[in-house]
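Lab notebook: predicted structure, single chain.

Context: the supervisor wants predicted structures on file for every construct in the current expression panel, including those that have not yet been purified. This is the next one on the list. No modifications to the sequence; it matches the entry in the shared construct table.
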Amino acid sequence: MLVIDLHETGYPATKLDNPEGLAEGARIGTLVANHDVEELVGIAGDRLFVIHPESAAEVYHELELGEGVGRLAQGFTTHGEVFYVLGDDGGLRLFNPAHDWELITTAELMDAPGDEDTLSVTVSADQERLFVLHNQSVIEVDATDGDIVRTIDLGFSASAIAWLGLAEAGHDHGDEHDHEEEHSH
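Prediction complete. Output recorded below exactly as produced.
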């Protein structure tokens, strides 16, 4: 991995060796970052490494998911307070980047999903909530402690989920436009 300092004159670069124990020929192929978190998370297969590019002592720190657990989805909450990993065992692991990436909790959301299960995770920008799509339901999780807030039955199978925000309370679109005058039919 090549780290380039865009703030220094001449853009000095440093090549980082692979993490110890990474299989021969394996590489970190994906980086996950958040503007409020100094470290990056590198993904190499099912292994996740917290990367401290400016550290002289320990550049990589592996996030432990548990023996034989693979990752299905991962990311940061909006402001980087939590890094989440949905494991192939159905557990949602929440890590705290501000406290040396300690594991906050593992929320057991479901049985181990199968190959035909639909899974997707999105983050609420307004509150510390994760929304986990699992087949015909959405599981709302409090990202600060892993508590399941509620489960929403969709009544249909969705293929993905995205957070678009909340409508402002009391906002009435009817006052802004007269749709009959805008559209000619």
